[in-house]
Amino acid sequence: MSAAPIRKRRKEARPAELMAAALGLFVDKGYAATRLEDVAIRAGVSKGTLYLYFDSKEALFKAVIQEGIVPVLLENEAIAARHTGSSFELLEKLLDHWWEKIGRTAFAGIPKLMVAEARNFPEIAQFYYENVIRRGRALVGTALERGMASGEFRRLDVETTIDVIIAPILMLLIWRFSLAGCESVEADPAHYLAVHMDLVRQGLGKREAESQV
Amino acid sequence: MSAAPIRKRRKEARPAELMAAALGLFVDKGYAATRLEDVAIRAGVSKGTLYLYFDSKEALFKAVIQEGIVPVLLENEAIAARHTGSSFELLEKLLDHWWEKIGRTAFAGIPKLMVAEARNFPEIAQFYYENVIRRGRALVGTALERGMASGEFRRLDVETTIDVIIAPILMLLIWRFSLAGCESVEADPAHYLAVHMDLVRQGLGKREAESQV
Amino acid sequence: MSAAPIRKRRKEARPAELMAAALGLFVDKGYAATRLEDVAIRAGVSKGTLYLYFDSKEALFKAVIQEGIVPVLLENEAIAARHTGSSFELLEKLLDHWWEKIGRTAFAGIPKLMVAEARNFPEIAQFYYENVIRRGRALVGTALERGMASGEFRRLDVETTIDVIIAPILMLLIWRFSLAGCESVEADPAHYLAVHMDLVRQGLGKREAESQV
Amino acid sequence: MSAAPIRKRRKEARPAELMAAALGLFVDKGYAATRLEDVAIRAGVSKGTLYLYFDSKEALFKAVIQEGIVPVLLENEAIAARHTGSSFELLEKLLDHWWEKIGRTAFAGIPKLMVAEARNFPEIAQFYYENVIRRGRALVGTALERGMASGEFRRLDVETTIDVIIAPILMLLIWRFSLAGCESVEADPAHYLAVHMDLVRQGLGKREAESQV
DNA sequence: TATGAATGAGTATTCATTCAT
DNA sequence: AATGAATGAATACTCATTCAT
Questions:
Q1: Is the CB of D52 under 7 A from strand E?
Q2: Dihedrals φ, ψ of B35, to 5°?
Q3: Residue D153: per-residue pLDDT
Q4: pTM passes above 0.85
Q5: Which of these ranges, A59-73, A102-116, C4-18, C115-129, has the smallest mean pLDDT?
Q6: What three-state secondary structure class fits B33?
Q7: CATH number belonging to the domain at D13-56, selected among 1.10.150.120, 3.90.930.1, 3.90.1570.10, 1.10.10.60
Q8: Cα dihedral sign for B49, B53, B56, B61?
Q9: Domain D69-208, CATH class in plain words
């Protein structure tokens, strides 16, 4: 009950360990500049072992992207389905959960990675678009429609507003994994998100003047 | 008066031609995955010629970043200095000019490129930070302070608000050079920026309730 | 007991095999004109394998020089320490051993190689000077001092005589790896050395006239 | 009488200037590691100009070797032909002249250069052998035969003794252009040659014992 | 003649991938 | 399953040589 299971657990954990190591290096150095030997070393195995679990560098990249974010989307879709409060509160809930599962985990680097490599891997980009981007936008879009219907939000160009709202959240992560190192002052992401949501709340809400129209 | 200068004109134009070719490929494939031979071919010269003008691949990258954006910052600083209207109009002017000189030119790819490669070129990232990011943020910051002082804007956490306002503009470009290809519908950037600025106008402005306080 | 260790024995033998191949080509064509691919082919491996054992062409060159000659110097120092016969016999012993371990082995090419490349690799030249030249000269110098003290040799400018005595021995090897091919008649090195030592014996010895003074 | 001739003189001096520049660099860095651009720069012309005077790098190398030393051999042959004193004095005369025209001029580097590159340029090596080595050896050989015939020298293996006598003289130059830089103490070549000739004089002369036989 | 911009073949080095153990 | 030695295709960079001016 001691030796064998540990080995087994090890064996089953290998792919995840390798993907975690790969994600870290891909985010740090980019796909092309990441050496598989470094991935193996970081995961504590040999170069050959990596090929027991992944067919190629590209397959590893694909797995890193696919395993990372998709589950969170599913969860957020469930959150939206059972939400009952105001639409703005729904936006906040979605953001909170996303932050908890992506923003403060190792997966936080994926948006930057995907942005940097999308053109080199159209197939993976397509997958990411279908399963992350499109569904994420749909969630925000639903919340906006809901708020407009209830009178909570003013009339909006929903499709465009979705992007404008999401952009600062993505930039927060992209920034963290790119130019953040240039500045000694470490920004507080929670505060950043609060300021953003505050701007959104007022920006989306009905103005007195408008409500009188 | 036409035959002789061809060679000379060529020689003076070469660096710019090479930088343009390099920017295109760097943005498209990333720094590491860009072959210098492809840069040369795109510029219509041979591999060796490239080395007559740039000492190395890194030197070429550096030049691409440095020559591209810095001049625009200088111009925007001049615009801010002589502005007389409302603070929100100043923000619009700065955005317009930046869009004219960066957003709709070949330089539009630089933000994505810099984001993708910052960690591999700390020295260049530092340069970019000092000369583009810091000064760009300062311009927006000044406009926000001005608007708060005049009562045009509500009380704000300026440093954070700067980032939140800039983020959608950067994401617009980053998006264009990464995942945009996944969607057949080509978005209208002018409309996107209009929606963003509309959100900002209302988001930053004084609320009735607040103004009564 | 034979199959398994093959791989391992190979791995341990590789550096020496590569160095031998490199020495042959460096001596033949010079450092700059030697292609690492040719070194690899001569050693029966691929280009990449070479880099498993040596970091760079220069590291390979360094190893070739350092591993080749230094051990022989140590042995000759031991020979000198336990010698009891005449001083001229000591010179002969040193020459014999050096010939056995360098002159008739693959290392014979090193003096020409070092002479040809010293200016391009000052650091390696310095190492060679300290560990081969200086110590070799010291051995000869000791023998000369010893012979002068015992009355076997006439009074000599020791430092200069060292060089004059060593020169024909070095030239013998240098010649073999450079212009020797121009002459069909293959000279006999043993005879050459005998003639040299005969000249040295009479040249260093006391003359009758001098002994009467 | 001023502008034109200067230009002309310049034009006629070009090949010699280029050869001098090339010799310096060939000796310093070796043939392969010498860049023709550096040769041109050192000679104060452009890279293209070099090709007006020499067809290729190899042709330049050939010229450097051929123009450098051959004339001196001719002169030494004349010296030997009209010599009347002792045979040892003839050896001294030949050495003096060679030292004056080669040893203390820029041509002093040629022996090292030829030694280092002989195997890469068999044709040039052959030329050098025929015109420099063979004729130089013949001169020394004649002096030795003459001394033996007159009873001035003891019985010798002439062919081998030639090489043994010449070796220290060549090594003096080879040393100067290779490892000499490793030692701070700058040796005095005149003194070195004096010690060598002193050893030769006693080494070649008849011994009392021998003369009694 | 002289220039120097342009070329492209050639080489050192890297790294994804394979495979014998 | 796991290793790591071996491979060789790929790429940055150099430099002899050419040629339009």
A1: yes
A2: -90, 135
A3: 97
A4: yes
A5: C4-18
A6: coil
A7: 1.10.10.60
A8: negative
A9: mainly alpha
